[in-house]
Amino acid sequence: MSDLHLPRTAIIDERIQESSTIFTLRLRFEDAAAQEVFEFSPGQFNMVTHFAAGEIPISIVNDPKDSHYFDHTIRVVGRVSEAMSKLQPGDRVGIRGPFGRGWPVEDAVGRDVLLVTGGLGCAPLVSVIRYLMKRRSQFGHLHILQGVKHSNDLIWREQYDAWAREPDVNVLLAADVVTREWHGQQGMVTELIGQLNLRHGRTIAMLCGPEVMMLAAIANLRDLGIADHQIWFSMERNMQCGIGQCGHCQIGAKYVCQDGPVFCYSELADLMGAKGF
Amino acid sequence: MQQSAKIERQPGFLPRSDLQQLLDGIVQSGYQVLGPVVQDGAIQLKAISDATELVKGVSNVQEPGHYRLQQTAGERLFDWNHGPQGLKPLCFAPHEVLWVEQKDPLSFAARLPEVKPTAVLGVRACDLSALAIQDRHFLHAGGADPHYRQRREQLLLIGIDCAHSAASCFCASTGDGPSVNQGYDIGMSELDEGFLVWSGSDKGKAVLERVALTTPQTEQLEQMNSQSEQAAGEQQRKLSKPEELMRLYQRLEHAHWQQVADRCLGCGNCTAVCPTCFCYDTQHEVSLDGQSAQNVRQWDSCFSASHSSMGGFKVRGDILSRYRQWLTHKLAGWQEQQGRIGCTGCGRCITWCPVGIDLTKETDTILWEGSLDE
Q1: How many domains does chain A have?
Q2: Are residues A30 and A57 in the same domain?
Q3: How close, in Å, is residue B335 to chain A by CA atoms?
Q4: Is residue A274 one of the residues assigned to a domain?
Q5: CA B170 → CA A111, A179, A238, B166, B188, distances in Å?
């Protein structure tokens, strides 16, 4: 029986500083056989352990076809991520995973996809955008909406520009506070949804960001006639085990770590936004 | 390991004076025996080797926020209902190391517990049902937990029918008691003159082959049944039906949640004594030289402030939302997760609540009284 609590060691091959508080670690399992069999889908996460500091859930952001490595983009928000930010190539971390249910990329085949992100470098959604871009012919029109607080917060700016140059890809950026060089709009990302010409019955929406932002986006999408089962989003909760066991991440009867983190709105509609769930 | 079908009873009779034979049979089969003794004024499970160590002539008074043992005039050994803990700590350890890590180079090693074969004497129906619920959680959902399994596989469970109910008991309404009906290796029912004893598994059968049981009299079998009926009839509390309990999710705005929150201390006693609560927290404990660390799992409670914490923000920042999380999960969410409620009617959360919050009463008020506070 494999021990689902026991991490395996992975080596940092590369470290990229994405912004002052965001960095990416490119990792591979020390055990080559473990790396060989490691499979994941966009939206899934690993539990990453830093020696002595602790273990945190981090989304996997690279393409699942990259079989020789996996990437974690991490923002410094607490003690463990702070400790991880000091790691360098050659250092080791512990990995358990992958865990959870990722984005419904199979359901999205043949459809237009609306991707809405609020906040700094929302890694779970970037993973699916990259996935769709690499398999461009399988999907219809892509609307990529990204909102940040301050226009200087946006990371991967070149990547957004590159995506915008692709045919049938619509990239809209919004920032609450903007500088003079900002090409996007001023305001909230959810306000951009109303400007879109979404094709009913053809569009699947994928959201990631603060819950208030996602709730506002869901309300807008429902007003536009997008069905509840075509609205998907990634949830965040206190996750410690990754296997639906420690109990912290429950929303009603759902374990975010196992039934999610990606949910369909029709699965969580009753409790989404209810205080304390 | 997981038995849900009701066990058919084929009891033999064991005179009271021969109980040591049963203990010897268990010990000869390779088990240490945990039996009920009085410690700190409560019934607790401790290692025993002799039947004379067992608590005798003691019953209990259990009411909201109240637990007292009482001396009875009789010779019976099992006239109490239960102490603060059931079987939970024996399988799901309150504090245990899951793995250890070394710093240079970083490496991880599992640390599995060493567990002796352990027989538990006097397990109640509510706790057998609760163990089946914990089995489903730790062994069959998510993934099989090696630590839980290691402990669980070593258990030999000797269940006993409750001849009386405490005021806090409501297992008849959840369908879990007061008589043992599943999940035990040996079943017992206590009579004044001795015990009816039967096997509930192959393991139990092997032990009983070492014990000389006689054929019981018809009156003894009738008394076994009438004691169970009497114990069920004594119960003063009951829980609504599972499908009715699902309506708790429609009553999230009921004014009574706040009334409970005003009394609740958020202490987590209810979750600590609950035989089905499974939440745990993991912590890294670093050695003094900084070269190694261990990952420790310990019981957590949805009443703790950190339970819902993510990056400083707490999903449940107040006691109202914590109590509501506990009750809705226990009585409604659990049904979706496991196909049954997460309560087996033991009533410990009522007894051990320092302010006497009553799960059955609060649930009834929220389900059946008043309109929504809107």
Answers
A1: 2
A2: yes
A3: 8
A4: no
A5: 54, 66, 34, 9, 21
A270: phi then psi, degrees, rounded to nearest 5: -65, -35
Q: Which ipTM was obtained for this model?
A: 0.93
Instruction: Give the tokens for residue A118.
Output: 């609020």
Q: Which CATH number is A95's domain given?
A: 2.40.30.10
Confirm whether A1 is domain-assigned. Answer: no
- Whether the CB-CB separation of A111 and A204 falls below 8 Å is answered with yes
Show residues of chain B in contact with A7, CB under 8 Å: 99, 101, 108
Among residues A46, A22, A262, the alpha carbon closest in space to that of A121 is found at A22
Nearest chain B CA: its distance from A210 CA (Å) = 12
Are residues A89 and A167 part of one domain? no
Cα–Cα distance, A203 to A145 (Å, whole number)? 14
Q: Can you give the pTM of this predicted structure?
A: 0.94
Beta bridge partners of A204: A113
CA B310 distance to own-chain centroid:
31
Domain span at residue A129 reads 112-268
CB contact set of B312 (below 8 Å; sequence gap of 6+): A78
Residue in A closest to B105 by C-alpha: A92
Residues of chain A contacting B141 with CB distance shorter than 8 Å: 244-245
**Would you give the distance in Å from CA B166 to the centre of its chain?**
15
**From A147-151, A243-247, B370-374, the region with the lowest mean pLDDT:** B370-374
Lowest mean pLDDT among B130-139, B215-224, B305-314, B354-363: B305-314
**φ/ψ of residue B174, rounded to 5:** -90, -5
Which of chain B's residues have a Cβ under 8 Å away from the Cβ of A236? 310
